Amino acid sequence: MESGLRSNSAPKLERKYVEKNRRNNMKNLYNQLHSLLLNHASSKETLALPDRIDAATNYIKSLETKLEKNKMYLEELRISCRKRPRSVKATNELPSSSTKSLPQIEFHEMSPTMFVVLITGLDNLAIFYNIIRLLNEEGVEVLYSSFSLNGNSTLQISLETKVSIPMKQGFISLMVIQLSFNFTKVI
């Protein structure tokens, strides 16, 4: 008879401990989930468990939307990179005189200011330094110079010179010319 009582009480005690361990495990999992939330430190009051779960699901949903936006942005970047013409170095061909990209120079005149845009590939890096050197030799002050391997490089200079421009009412004797060179990486 005693053996029968022990066998009945053993499963009850075992279920009790299993259930207690399960609850403690779930409590630890909820606390870990709540600790992963970014704004958990800012809330001074402790939230009830359902509120913490709701906050976690909202946070996960916001992360999913951010991930989708970033995936779409990455795909747009990939598409735009495919549309760009490839340079000679990217295709591993030998450059010939007809395929090698030549620098492009554009002049934009706006009243007393002139902007010069120079577009060249990274293989013509010496052009950037040669232009600065030539302008310094001619007495032109370089106001701003920036070169970047990953993006656009700019050179902004200012030149004050006396220029005689005939006009109907007389002459303009002083003119400020500002040149801005934008070196862009040609892919």
Task: Report what the structure shows.
The chain is of the alpha+beta class. The protein has 3 helices and 7 strands. The chain has 2 domains: 2-83, MYOD Basic-Helix-Loop-Helix Domain, subunit B, CATH 4.10.280; 104-183, no CATH class. The protein has helices at 2-36, 49-83, 125-137, and strands spanning 104-110, 113-119, 141-146, 153-161, 165-166, 171-172, 175-183. The strands form 3 sheets. Strands 3-4-7 form a 3-stranded antiparallel β-sheet, covered by helices on one side. The protein has a two-stranded antiparallel sheet with strand order 1-2. Strands 5-6 form a two-stranded antiparallel sheet. A hairpin with a 6-residue loop joins strand 3 and strand 4. Helix 1 packs across helix 2 (49-83). Mean pLDDT is 65; it is low at 87-99 and 157-187.
